[in-house]
Amino acid sequence: xxxxxxxxxxxxxxxxxxxxxxxxxxxxxxxxxxxxxxxxxxxxxxxxxxxxxxxxxxxxxxxxxxxxxxxxxxxxxxxxxxxxxxxxxxxxxxxxxxxxxxxxxxxxxxxxxxxxxxxxxxxxxxxxxxxxxxxxxxxxxxxxxxxxxxxxxxxxxxxxxxxxxxxxxxxxxxxxxxxxxxxxxxxxxxxxxxxxxxxxxxxxxxxxxxxxxx
Length: 214
Fold this sequence. Notes:
Elements: E1 37-41, H1 47-60, H2 70-84, E2 98-104, E3 107-115, E4 126-134, H3 143-154, E5 161-167, H4 171-179, E6 197-203
Parallel strand pairs: 4-5
Antiparallel strand pairs: 1-2, 2-3, 3-4, 5-6
Helix pairs in contact: 1-2
């Protein structure tokens, strides 16, 4: 399968009252999930939002801390710049990340970065969610769950497995993954040997798809 992940056409998502990133119920006083939620491919103009979300996640321990040093932030900026270019996947041999933005009306509320490993037979036909985050002001309102379900709904039909990984202490992300069908395997797949990370897999994601979005 190609190292690039192409989603099917996006549609507006229906309302949902499901719990989200922090496992809390949607707050009545906060912004709710409207019918105008949208999941779209990211472009260069989204670089500042994605960069800041990843750096905040690194500081909170959700992502690797190697981006926190001076040279690390430069590496991250370069990675995002190249991968957000329309022809970015042609510029290098490393795995290319496809970044996508989740919006509610005009507000950017989250992002996801996916790749399909090129040189790992055990992860053949697997899409890896390498980055996934919700802006702090939108956590605990159901957006994380809705975003993950939108992502699963739009994956190509030939994807047989989705893999992602999280730090051992990020309980809110673990709850989100469990709610959307991911399970932790008995054995860590090849390529995820970092003992600080825990891998979660969703087998046969096509079985979860239904006409329209949930």
